[in-house]
Amino acid sequence: MPEFLSRQRWWITRVLLLPLHLFVFAIITFLLLRLVPGDPVASVLGPNYTQAAYLTMQRALGLDGSVWSQLGRYIVEILHLDFGSSIQTGRAVMSEMGTRLPGTLELAVQGLFFTVLLSLVLSYVAVFHPKTVLARIVLVYSRAAGALPEFVLAVWALFVFFTVLHVAPAPLGRLSTDLPTQTVITGFPFLDTLIQGYTAGAISMAAHLVLPIAVMAIASSAVVIKVLVSSLQGAIQDPATAFRITTGSGRRATVLSVYRRAAPAVVTLVGQMFGYLVGGTIVLESLFGFAGLGSYAVKAVLSTDYPAIQGFLLVVAGITLIVYMIVDLAVMTVDPRRRPGSVGSN
Amino acid sequence: MTTATLPLTAARAERRKYSAKLPRRRIDFLLLLPSLLIVLLAIVGPFLTPYSATTISGAVSSAPSMAHLFGTDSVGLDVFSRVIGAARYNLVIAVATTLLCTVIGVVFGLGIGWFESARGAAGLVARGTTRLFDLLQAVPAILLGLVIVSFFGASVISLTVGMAIILAPIQMRLVRIEVLRVRKEAYLDAARMAGQNELKLLARHVLPNSIWVALENMSFLFATSILLTAALGFVGVGLRPPTPEWGSMISSATNDALTGRWWSAAFPSIAMMITVWAFSNASHALFGRIAPKKLAAAAASSSPVVPSSEAAAEAR
Question: N or C: which terminus of chain A carries fewer CB neighbours within 10 A?
Fold first, then answer.
């Protein structure tokens, strides 16, 4: 048993560290938010309030006592997975997250999927057919990585496809306003319409999603293509490729082996892209009128709503850290050299 | 030592190749030119523009014409004057952010890389700080920026400091990896034997050898901070409305664009793209000449085995 443990340590420690990281993160955000100027009690009460009203409201919001006793209560609460209630709306942060987060996550995952797909196709053209016109365009485009943020692209896309060409639906939410909303099963809007076989809804939703997803894929694939192309070119130069060719592997097998050797750097990057896309989604949501985390976050921040801010920061950080962990474990599974403690790692 | 002579000959070969291609210097200058023009425009632009960037100067939403080159926005402000006027704010914020986060990143990267595997308190603090930086990066930059900037009120200073905190981990990681590479080099032992103390060692030998990747990355950070400022302006925590800023200009022009008045959103976004493009070209021109060897050394040693969680920060 001890031998098993020491051999499997690389992933066990990684998994066990995650809750610890989140816990530290929660405490740090709690303390940092208390350093921030602004008094939520006063902002709830409005300009005129008595001392007594102030004290009762302070107690009701859980903001009485010293910072440390508040921290103690907060720790007990989050250990019970209770993030408190929003100061502004009075609704539990956890349930608000439950209704808003799935939409944001779904959009981010869809964006990520198409980003990866587009990058794979374009990098194949750029690396394996380098003399074509498309390859040159792809390379120039990937070098300009990041010069086009998604919200600028989105405004342009809306102007061209909605205002001028009238092919895109109005940016007023996920469903056309004349269609009934779908019943909530999983909370993920598009998935829900598919599960119920609500075809008209699914088609309308897909039509609404084309622009935001295309914008995300175009804006964020530049970075992925840049990394993918350079690691593919590196992998082609490897002796392993020459070995494949000299031993008579077909073109397909050779290309596959090149992709496999180029994979780890890209898998890691794709994990990081997820966090980036969640950020991009928050911006796009406001533009396309989707309900999601973005508007909640902006509202919470602008009204110094401690529980809501702590809640969404913790939830987003939790999701991102889980994705990073999965990516790290995937890379370490594929390539044992990357496990901690292996020869050559530092 | 044979390895000591190798870089010398390589350098000589490089120099010979360079002198054979002298006209490239002119190309370098041409690559620098657009960014210099933009800086010049940001400095003198507000004195040349036909209207004030913050006061109403004409009819609401009029199309581009001779009187208003880029048209006017939905409030009646002249878009041309605002695009030029915004360059100053956006450039100052982006340059200050880039410098500040590089300074923070270099200081922390040096300290962490140097003390990371030390025993005792120093090592613990260094490793703990790495973890804190990791946690900082777990929240998307735009969300973190939203929280930081809105709390301290949107001003040039709060935007700069906030974005510097958000972007510093990127530089920290780049420097840290370089320090880990440099740490074992023989010239450090030589300097130690010559009697230099550790602090001097860090400043005179470790710093100059581990800073190049971070310096080269500054163009990426510059672009990122321009876009992040714009994105923050877009979600509504940027500089207050009459102040010209590209992101908030695009944001407030969204409705214009949706109703067919494209000019108030198009010109600020074109200005933003040209700026990002110009400065990344300038950085290529500068670093392609000054530091190709240093960068090549760094690239060669960051061999295929990079601890996975670190690899991506460089790419982003």
Answer: N
